[in-house]
Design a protein that fits this description.
- It is built from nine helices and ten strands.
- By secondary structure, it is α/β, with parallel strands linked by helices.
- Helices cover 39% and strands 15% of the residues.
- The chain is globular, with a radius of gyration of 18 Å.
- Bound molecules: zinc ion (2 copies).
- The site of one zinc ion (ZN) has 4 residues, from loops.
- One zinc ion binds next to α6.
């Protein structure tokens, strides 16, 4: 696994590269614009060019845009749904502009309408974003959820159904979050646990769909369905789990992005990154 972090991109999008380099990242994730407003981000071409140049000169091998938190691709509220689809498409456009590898999105909640009703909405949303992506290199990654409040993607069958809804389109991939998996009931604390989860993933979606990991410890216990990230080693997963995760051959060529609170509460920091890196037996 090559290790990276969610970084700030305020004050100019190229700062995301600078912030990542400062932390010794080989992969970065950032928001295009504010994650709590609907306004789509359109970069000035000179800013996008500065980002691309900074990246080309950096050791960063993988860059991904996380879509805004407001997005719900399964909502029954029509206005909210339209805004969500527009925001998803806008993220793909930003990704093309910056030349980043992928966008990653939470799916959202069916809000009690049931998985099948939500799936129809997700299917349409994915169709729209794939039309925007076209034959560009940008990948569209669906992220698993901890499973609170009707959120979609709590297991591999649900993620597989979403992939199947767009005919298994090869431009769709998966992002798995270790905290979300654990909270959703997938134990990851031993090599055997991880292998069992990977077998289920392979059966439902195909292992090759997995393109990104969010590497977070969990403040809440196995199966709690709560999405509370903890610093590496400070949560219920613990250091032994991350030693297995960073050294697992299935993850050897995947980016692992930290989205932890940070030991100073300022987000992913050098201490978390170095801690994770120190667990690698090849480091
Ligand atoms: Zn995540
Ligand atoms: Zn989370």
């Amino acid at each position: 696994m090559y290790i990276g972090a969610h970084v700030k991109a305020s004050g100019g999008v190229w700062k995301a590269i600078e912030n990542g380099v400062e932390l010794g990242c080989e992969a970065i994730q950032f928001f295009a614009g504010s994650p709590r407003t609907w306004a789509p981000m359109v970069y000035k071409e000179k800013d996008a060019a500065r980002f691309r140049e900074a990246r080309a000169a950096s050791p960063i091998r993988y860059a991904v845009i996380h879509t805004i938190y407001l997005i719900n691709l399964a909502t029954t509220n029509e206005e909210f749904y339209e805004k969500s689809v527009a925001a998803l498409v806008a993220a793909a456009r930003s990704a093309e502009q910056l030349g980043v590898d992928a966008i990653v999105t939470h799916i959202g909640s069916h809000q009690g309408a049931g998985f099948e009703a939500g799936l129809t909405r997700v299917q349409h949303a994915l169709g729209e974003v794939l039309a925007e992506v076209g034959d560009s290199e940008v990948r569209v990654l669906l992220e698993d959820t901890a499973g609170a409040g009707g959120t979609m993607g709590v297991n591999f069958d649900e993620l597989g159904a979403m992939i199947d809804s767009v005919g298994g389109d090869p431009r769709i991939g998966l992002c798995l979050d270790t905290c979300h998996l654990f909270a959703a009931g997938f134990d990851l604390r031993t090599r055997e646990d991880i292998d069992r989860a990977l077998e289920a993933l392979d059966a439902a979606c195909g292992l090759k769909r997995l393109e990104l990991l969010h590497v977070n410890d969990s403040k809440t216990p196995l199966g709690s369905n709560r999405d509370r990230h903890a610093n590496i080693g400070e949560g219920e997963l613990g250091l032994a789990a991350f030693r297995e995760i960073v050294n697992h051959p299935a993850f050897a060529e995947l980016p692992g992005i930290l989205e932890v609170p940070g030991f100073d509460g300022e987000g992913p920091d050098l201490r978390n990154i170095e801690l994770l890196r120190s667990l690698r037996t090849d480091a």
